[in-house]
Amino acid sequence: MSELAGQTYLKMNGLGNEFVIVDLRKKNYAIDADTAAKIADPKTGPGCDQVITLEKRKPYEGVFMGVWNADGGEVDACGNASRCVGWLLMNDLESKEVRFQTGAGELHAWRVGDKRIAVDMGEPKLHWREIPLAEQMDDTRFIDVKLGPIDKPVLWGPSAVNVGNPHCIFFVEDAETQALDRFGPMIEHHPLFPERVNVSVAQVISKHAIRLRVWERGAGITKACGTAACAALVAANRRRLTGRKATVTLDGGDLAIEWREEDNRIIMTGAIELEGDGRFPDNF
Ligand SMILES: N[C@@H](CCC[C@H](N)C(=O)O)C(=O)O
């Protein structure tokens, strides 16, 4: 039996990217990788793509948002969960904006509609050491990695961007036909990415529209990935394929992404959904 037995949780999603959110701010325990994986697996818990914890975590001031992938690994950033947590905290505080902490730094979220939230996701990191890559690549707009079997590559030369977590983005003519379920895991575990990587295929529709499908590190294909949408817009703009503002269409819906020229920060705007609450069973 774990310390979560009897504890309540919320189910939320951002464009179908599913979260179980556990509020541990008044508890004196944290979750670990095994517990996160047990919560995320629908055979043993409520099931989700990411487990999100709200914590008082030292040395952070204020509320800390913990992000745990379905495989149990803890990571630093989650765009869709940031909108969900922003919405929850703003409701708690009866406020129109809020700041909270993550492993990737402080985030600022504000309300732009009833269940529509904007988040300042910070500045992208573009140097190969910051992605991180295992070897020097001076131009992260086009890195030397192949998607598919070494002797018969299907795609090659993605961009790499870190937006609090590592992303690699392949620009393709048709995102729908890419076998992301086959190639996603190969690239996620490619030795060029020492912390593994989130893998996207991006189809540029126009200067202001991108179609994106994502294989998430530690979670597989999800209906939407907010940080991937941010990374894709940055990569597309660096390749002069789009402007600095675009609608990114994921399987679960649209995100508006802007990479601001004046301060280099990425603003992500999109919907959130509250599905309901639940309680971990007494024998959890
Ligand atoms: N779904 C998230 C990203 C979650 C973390 C990611 N899988 C990673 O391992 O970095 C999003 O909306 O950004």
From TrEMBL:
Q: Where is the active site?
A: C78, C225
Q: Which organism is it from?
A: Hyphococcus flavus
- Encoded by which gene? dapF
The EC number on file is 5.1.1.7
Key words, A-Z: Amino-acid biosynthesis, Cytoplasm, Isomerase, Lysine biosynthesis
Where does this polypeptide localize? Cytoplasm
Instruction: Indicate what this protein is called per its UniProt record.
Output: Diaminopimelate epimerase
Site: Could be important to modulate the pK values of the two catalytic cysteine residues. Where? Answer: H167, E216
Q: What does this protein do?
A: Catalyzes the stereoinversion of LL-2,6-diaminopimelate (L,L-DAP) to meso-diaminopimelate (meso-DAP), a precursor of L-lysine and an essential component of the bacterial peptidoglycan.
Q: Where is the signal peptide?
A: none
Q: Give Gene Ontology CC terms.
A: cytosol
